[in-house]
Amino acid sequence: MAYDTIITEEPQLKEYMDGLRRRGITKLALDMEGDQGMFHYKYAVSILQCFDGETPNVIDVLKMGGNDTLREFLTCQDIIKVMFACGNDIFMAQTVIGCTITPVNDISVAQKLLGLPINLADYLHIDKKEKDAFQRANWLLRPIKPALLEYAINDVLKLLDIEKSMAEQLVEKELYEEYIRQSRTASDKKHLSNTHLLYERKFPGYVRMSFEKRRRAAALWIFRELLGERFDCPVGYLLPRKTLCQVLYSDKELPYALEAELNRHRKPQKKLSLDLIMDVLNTAMRSPYIPSKPAPIRRRNRIYKNTNEG
Fold first, then answer.
1. Domain range list for the chain
2. Does domain 6-188 have CATH number 3.40.630.30?
3. Long-range contacts of range 36-40, CB-CB < 8 Å, 24 or more positions apart?
4. Is the pTM of this model over 0.85?
5. Scanning 68, 103, 233, 242, which has its CA 20 to 30 A from the CA of 24?
6. pLDDT in the model for residue 298
7. Is 195-304 CATH 2.60.40?
8. Which helix (H) or strand (E) holds 172?
9. Is 45 exposed, middle or buried (0-12, 13-18, 19+ CB in 10 A)?
10. Do strands 44-51 and 56-60 pair parallel, antiparallel, or not at all (unpaired)?
């Protein structure tokens, strides 16, 4: 499919929305492409691809930037956004654009309620490996390659028909209201956008650590974020989570353990100096996001203070 009309400016987007309303469009297939830490430190939304049942459109979010019209488009209540597995897209919208996506009808929720495998590739007749390769492509490059644009548009062309078929089955099984409820719950979820606090959920084994180990784990996590931001580099390339654990439980002092891991596969001219590592680590250890006191222990819906008092 050839497609070369892309919305790149806010007035164009407003005109597009006005056109949808004039034609009485109340449901729109929607998907998103971007970079979630594969090429740069900061997450980025590249494009939104849309299909109203007649005409496909691409909104170049990267070129346009976040603006009030874009946020209105994603949150207007008179147009339902039909999506597949929208959780990550909502996370990206909240993190990058500053709003959620609502209201949403999520096809993956319908599949789950109907007892069907949760996938989209089979419906689109595309090999899952091929789909994964497109999703891992660098969507931040401009101009966007025609093959990527074609993939993006094809990803939404069948969503409205798929959702309509599943909605009919849900009505027959008296599951439609639950489908809507669960879909709306995804839109209402507030995602944590402060990456310096994600250690609580994402540092392996964090919940089972002693208080002192938690403080060190938090410092390591924040160190990695600060270093990634400094070099505009995906943090997973610098220190995978598995490596963070190895550093945490290393017999070496933190700066020396970090120096060894960060420079393990670097060429001599690319090695990071110990002074730089210590400077960033000291900044991390002064972070207000490091836990300052033991958290309460929660068991059987009762809260016990984490102290040695009887």
1. 6-188, 195-304
2. no
3. 36/88, 36/92, 37/234, 37/235, 37/236, 38/136, 38/138, 38/234, 39/138, 39/140, 39/234, 40/140, 40/232, 40/233, 40/234
4. no
5. 68
6. 56
7. no
8. helix 159-172
9. buried
10. antiparallel
